[in-house]
Amino acid sequence: MELTTLLFYFFSLLTIGSAIFMVFSKNIVHAAFALMFTLLGVAALYVLLFADFIAATQILVYVGGILILILFGVMLTTKGFTDNLKTLTTNLRPVSVVMTLVAAGMIYVLLTTTWPVAEIAEPEGTITGLGTLLLKEYILPFQVTGVLLLVAIIGALLMATKVKHQQ
Amino acid sequence: MTWLESLPLAVFVMIPLVIILIYALFAIWMERKVAGFIQDRLGPMRVGGWHGWAQSFADLLKLIQKEDIIPAEASKFLFRFAPFLMFAASYAAFAVIPFSSAYMGSNIDIGVFYLLAITSLLTISVIMAGWASNNKWSLLGAMRTAAQMVSYEVPTIMAVLSVIIVAGSLNLMTVTEMQSGNDTLGFLPNWLIFQNPFLLVAFVIFFISILAESHRVPFDLPESESELVAGFQTEYSGMRWAMFMLAEYADMLLLSLLGAVLFFGGWNSPFGGFMDGPIWGFFWFMFKGMILVFVMMWIRWTLPRYRVDQLMYLCWSILIPLSFINFVLIALWEMLF
Amino acid sequence: MVHSFKQGWQTLKSIFTGMGITIRHFFGPSVTLQYPDERDVLPKLARSKLFVNIDDCIGCNLCARACPVNCIDIETVKAGADVDLGKTSNGSQKRLWISRFVIDMAKCMYCDLCTYPCPTDCIYMVQEYEYSDFNRDNLVYKFSNLTPEKIAEVKETARIEAEEAEKKKAEEAAAKAARASKASDSRPSSVPGAARGIPGSAKGIPGKAKGIPGASKGVPGKAQGIPGAAKSIPGKAKGIPGAAKGVPGKAKSIPGTAKGVPGAAKSVPTAAKGVPGKAKGVPGAAKGVPGKAKSVPTAAKNVPGKAKSIPGTAKGVPGKAKSVPTSAKSVPGKAKSVPGTAKSVPGKAKGVPGKAKGVPGGGAAKVPGKSTAKQVPGKKPPKENKDNNTD
Question: Do the Cβ atoms of B40 and C28 come within 8 Å?
Fold first, then answer.
């Protein structure tokens, strides 16, 4: 078996296993760290797909940014990281019916679709093309996204700052 | 690729590990000597003969023999895992460092970007260690670390980006190669720091930021011994603690080497074609990195620690605006000249 | 804005100033002493470890009494009359076997107070400081060079002699008591007494009051700290011909003042003694005191050869100290001295001799040996001394 295949299965298992752990964990911090493994596994899968830029972004944004924010939020919340979560299952019957249907649909799609399989070939320089695309053809969405994020930041700042009513 | 065929690859991948291990042993000894000399002492003198050169080996032997204590109330798996995640993150980042013109772990186009991404795992591992220890000091240290590293990532990235604008590539090998030779004046090496006055400012920002990123004094709040009892490392002992130390020193070296690549020409000889070549390249590269490491140590034994609010003030109110302005100025300079 | 830049500049400047300092020290010489390989030269008077040159020790016990923490333990046995123990290096006759001389360095606090009183300078600090040990018992240093057998032997001899002397004394005492009661109505024997000194601890050193025909021995007294209450022990003091008794005075003193040094044999610290011959202006100055006893005003430290005066205290030079007894009464003609109250007014020290008591000899002139004041209250004179004195 090839090393790449082995790595693929390893990271797939890591991703799925830690995702399952995350869902069923009753400790919210454990869940957050399980999420980290999931995100790392996904990043590794990106690498195996020669999408190195996406992989690095995945790590930088999700692991280095969002996950830390989650952990911060959890830890700064009162008792959030000490008490086990009180999870209880409600609406068991309707949910199981719906989820069974969804799962069946997904499996059906998975089995019936003809997946195009490409030859493994390392692309030359992923980011040059990516940069060109972003800054030429998709400049508008790119900029709009940037403005959106800026608005979000300003909004967050505004919410976090106490407004003096007297003025 | 079969198992046997992947053996050379494994050896190839292990080269930075060997470098890190040797460097860590040397740097810990060096740190003590620097501290000693600066304080008019001698530092370790007795182990191994000449100036206690084997002190680090002795310490390593001691640490190996130590009991691996895991607190009863700790989160066992995360507690065990955190040191290795931290070292793994440091080690993984070495993949894109061009140690010499002949050796680079992975010659990928997104070099610097990858490096900055993978080092963000350090933050996670610190939080993991701090939380898993189930200790107030550890948790406080972890929170401080996270806040500090996330904050200082911004000026670091801005400073790095400034260089990337000038260099025009994220690949560190390319960045290094474009710095070979002498500059237009003829006597200075063609290093980026000499090419653009704003890059000097960028270097200052970068250096301050990497001090904070690698938790060095004056930004060692995450592990301040005097207030947090070593912060997230409080509950660690033996080899797990040693892994933290190793990771910390590896991180120091990593960021110093990154500084050497971005500003000081990487493996290029300072004398142009003289003393050039892959072997000399490696020497010069490590030499430059070690100079930066030395400056870090020098600062450590000179300056006191910042307060948390001062740390944040320095980052958000000074370094980040400055780095943005500097970034724009560098871009302008590149457009004009 | 300008302010911020100024502040920024200040910060940078101070950082570089600091780094300049540290780099200078980095290249500067180190002050470390590589200890086991190199050793510093100790100061001349360093206090590191006590040593006793046992050959010079006369067993006077002064060092043990000077010790504030009682880390010196001495046991002596009187030598038989026919035994000559030899002399010390400075000429003092040795009269006692040193059966035990133990110093517990674990207790020692290195105050060095024991070395000064030593009449023969046989106890002193040596410059050896590497004697730490895992066992506390190993810090107890034994200096006596007598074998256990020898100790047993000399003890036995001493015991026999003491018994004989006891018998003799009993007889003589009886005879004297009879005579004494006839001769005088005044009970107390007058001896210049225990002066209440300036607080100051006068240390009396057992002297050798000489000059009394016969053997007058100074008894190292123990000054006990009750001011003014020098008690002579009249009952015993009397009637022993030829034996002068020094009555230990009681000086209450503030430590650190007068020290009498035995070598001089002459300084009587604190306790002003009315010494006949010197008591001036006293009619009929107490007689019967051989001329050597001198009273040194209270707080005099009389260290022969070293003569250190503690500031504020009088330095009594033997022979010169004048005691001015205010009202010393002596009853001349009688071998008894009448206890007067001598007040010695030393220049600076105020010695208010409480009561000087002389121990009248049996009709003979006696000189009180030396009254010795000691710093440590409550100590009893060593046995050996008692033997000598309470004849």
Answer: yes
If DSSP codes are grouped into helix, strand and coil, which group holds residue B95?
Answer: helix
B140 and B228 Cβ atoms separated by less than 8 Å? yes
What is the C-alpha separation between C25 and B91, in angstroms, rounded? 35
In whole angstroms, give the CA distance from residue B77 to residue B227. 27
Give residue B311's identity as a one-letter amino acid code. Answer: L
The DSSP bridge pattern shows strands C215-217 and C243-245 to be: parallel
Tell me how close the Cα of A64 comes to any Cα of chain B, in angstroms.
5
Instruction: Dump pLDDT digits (tens) for B161-192.
Output: 888 888 888 888 888 888 877 665 666 777 88
Contacts of B17 (CB under 8 A, 6+ apart): B91
Question: Which residue shows structure tokens 């900029």?
Answer: A143
> Which residue's entry shows tokens 């050996």?
C384
How high is the ipTM of this complex? 0.80
Q: Which amino acid is at A150?
A: L
Residue window 75-104, chain A: list those with CB within 8 Å of chain B.
75, 81
**Per-residue model confidence as pLDDT tens digits over A117-149:** 877 777 776 778 888 888 888 999 999 999 999
Which subunits have 3 or more CB–CB pairs within 8 Å of chain B?
Answer: A, C
Closest by CA position to C273, among listed C199, C323, C230: C323
DSSP code of residue B272:
T
Minimum distance, in Å, between the CA of residue B154 and any CA atom of chain C: 21
Instruction: Tell me the chain A residues in contact with residue B170 when contact means C-beta distances shorter than 8 Å.
Output: 127
Q: Which residues contact B328 (CB under 8 A, 6 or more apart)?
A: none
Helix (H, G, I), strand (E, B) or coil at B285: helix
> How far, CA to CA in Å, does B295 sit from each of B211, B315, C22, C86, C361?
10, 20, 11, 74, 90
Residues of C contacting chain B (CB within 8 angstroms): 8, 15, 18-19, 21-23, 25-32, 34
**Stretches in chain B below the pLDDT threshold 70:** 1-3, 182-187, 272-273
Whole-number CA gyration radius for chain B: 20
First to last CA, chain A: 71
Report the alpha-carbon distance of residue B179 to residue C115 in Å, rounded.
Answer: 78
**Domains in chain C, please, with CATH?**
49-146 (3.30.70.3270), 184-382 (no CATH)
Amino acid at A40: L
CA distances from B119 to A22, B146, C48, C230 (A): 24, 12, 57, 88
Please tell me if residue A64 touches chain B, with a CB cutoff of 8 Å: yes
SS3 B2: coil
Comparing CB atoms, the residue among A60, A75, A126 nearest residue B116 is A60
Interface contacts B/C by beta carbons within 8 Å = 40
